[in-house]
Recover the amino acids of this structure.
């Protein structure tokens, strides 16, 4: 089988969805499947979640909404970056996709549209209608019925950051102005901040894929690759480009057939898992090669054996920490090629 290979565990996705529902009773759990379901693949993710009872999905782009609709004919599908450029409202209606109005310009293009979904920018400062200019927002929404109101938290991964409470307070001001609208402020980490952040819908992404944002969640995937080459090196010898790595002691090296061209984030400080033994990464990867220290398993590792780049033990969250990143979702989302 080719190297590398991504394996998704549908039962773990379903476990995480049900656990999220139990953890946040009274709030609808929607699945965020942007960027090809965080790199895991729409087909591998949407159907298992639908079977587990997920009825609402969020994507960023129209084409993603089309892909999800092909897999689930009945789901509610929100498209966040909707109606930008030449996209038409009729295209969304034809496929029963819900466009989220995220700019004043899109609101102006469709002044008569009612029962709309609206995204406010309460401090994320990357997407949404500027909520700090309340007069302009209310003029744009004057006479409109809003059926869904949402925003993004920008610091939910840091519970002590005061900006969380500031964004909550601003969102609540708007929520009071649209009492009939369903509300959504939080994704996975926001939901963990407390009941007051949950509102009607939680847009679960990281937690569904096995993040520490949801205690008890299971890693939804593993990435494996084959060992292509094995060799002992003596102290003083070099490894890789430009002689940047010099061995300080005798070391048995396994060159794993995966690299930067495959979207991995591994670098020194990270590991791969060989049958439960973590092997340290020695240098940044080449395009399709990742050298690891296999001295601990020199007597039992062979060419064509498989190692796990991440799995249910060395999880994407653990790998993200070792790679100096934020969360495991940052690891997964780079895997679109699989």
């Amino acid at each position: 089988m080719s190297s590398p290979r991504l394996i998704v565990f549908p039962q773990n996705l379903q476990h995480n969805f049900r656990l999220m529902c139990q953890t946040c009773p009274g709030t609808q759990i929607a699945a965020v499947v942007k960027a090809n379901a965080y790199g895991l693949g729409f087909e591998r993710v949407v159907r298992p979640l639908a079977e587990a009872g997920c009825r609402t999905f969020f994507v960023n782009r129209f084409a993603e909404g089309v892909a999800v609709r092909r897999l689930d004919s009945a789901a509610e599908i929100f498209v966040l970056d909707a109606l930008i450029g030449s996209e038409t409202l009729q295209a969304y209606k034809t496929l029963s996709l819900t466009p989220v109005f995220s700019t004043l310009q899109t609101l102006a293009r469709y002044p008569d549209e009612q029962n709309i979904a609206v995204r406010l920018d309460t401090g994320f400062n990357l997407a949404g209608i500027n909520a700090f200019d309340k007069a302009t927002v209310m003029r744009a929404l004057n006479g409109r019925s809003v059926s869904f109101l949402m925003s993004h938290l920008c610091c939910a991964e840091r519970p002590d950051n005061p900006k969380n409470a500031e964004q909550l307070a601003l969102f609540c001001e708007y929520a009071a102005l649209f009492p009939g609208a369903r509300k959504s402020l939080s994704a996975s980490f926001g939901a963990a901040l407390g009941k007051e952040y949950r509102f009607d819908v939680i847009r679960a992404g990281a937690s569904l894929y096995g993040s520490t944002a949801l205690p008890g969640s299971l890693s939804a995937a593993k990435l494996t690759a084959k060992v292509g080459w094995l060799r002992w090196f003596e102290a003083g010898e070099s490894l890789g480009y430009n002689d940047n790595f010099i061995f300080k002691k005798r070391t048995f090296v396994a060159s794993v057939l995966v690299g930067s061209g495959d979207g991995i984030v591994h670098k020194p400080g990270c590991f791969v898992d060989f049958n439960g033994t973590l092997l340290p990464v020695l240098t940044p990867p080449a395009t399709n090669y990742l050298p690891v220290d296999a001295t601990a398993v020199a007597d039992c590792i062979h060419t064509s054996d498989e190692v796990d780049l991440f799995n249910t033990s060395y999880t994407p969250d653990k790998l993200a920490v070792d790679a100096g990143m934020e969360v495991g979702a940052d690891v997964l989302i780079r895997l679109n090629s699989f």
